[in-house]
Every structure is written in structure tokens, then in C-alpha cells.
């Protein structure tokens, strides 16, 4: 029986001050990585960050498209969409630019 695969849309900001899963960006997830977009370093950093956030081995995360752009699609092996959403939601950094409006 083949392992379940799920594709995930990302919006990536390379060269950030710190690496983080930021949160939802439309129908994609926004991700920041500290590495520059040179020689695939930012792409590899994105894949490592996702593997860590989702608690899967690095080889279960594959870049399918968007190798040279900010919009990317990754394929995740062994996780379903609901579990991915839950784990990324938990890993998402709080948006510090918003102010508490009580």
C-alpha cells in the first residue's frame, strides 16, 4: 500500500531575520527562512523547516515546483491534509505586527 501524499502551497520569504512558519497566506502557508535564495539554499532551508515543524524525516518533504520563485508547492509523504494543517497551525509564529484591540 503506497504512503499517503499531500501537496502544500507555500509563500516563501528568504533572507529573513529568523526562520519560522508564519501562518496562512490565502490558500498557502507563509514561511520565512534566513538563508538567501542562492544555489538552492533557501529551498533546502524551507524543506528542513517543514520537516521539523511536521515531525517527519526530511526525505518525506519534496519540492515539486517553484524552485526559483517565492510561490512553491511541496509534496509531503505520510501525512494527510488535516494533520498537516493542525501541525502547521501549532507551529505558526504569532503575528507580532498586530496589536491587541480590546
Spatial strand sequence of the major β-sheet: 2-3-1-5-4
Tally of DSSP β-strands: 5
Please provide the ordered H/E string of secondary-structure elements.
Answer: EEEHEEH
User: Helix/strand/pairing class, anyone?
Assistant: alpha+beta
Please name the CATH architecture. Answer: 2-Layer Sandwich
Q: If you consult CATH, what is the topology?
A: Conserved Hypothetical Protein Mth637, Chain: A
Number of helices: 2
- Can you give the mean pLDDT? 90
**Model regions low in confidence, pLDDT < 50 over at least 5 residues:** 97-102
Account of the protein in words:
- The protein has 102 residues and is of the alpha+beta class.
- 25% of the residues lie in helices and 31% in strands.
- The chain has a single domain (5-91), classed as YggU-like (Conserved Hypothetical Protein Mth637, Chain: A, 2-Layer Sandwich).
- The chain has a 5-stranded mixed β-sheet, covered by helices on one side.
- The chain is globular.
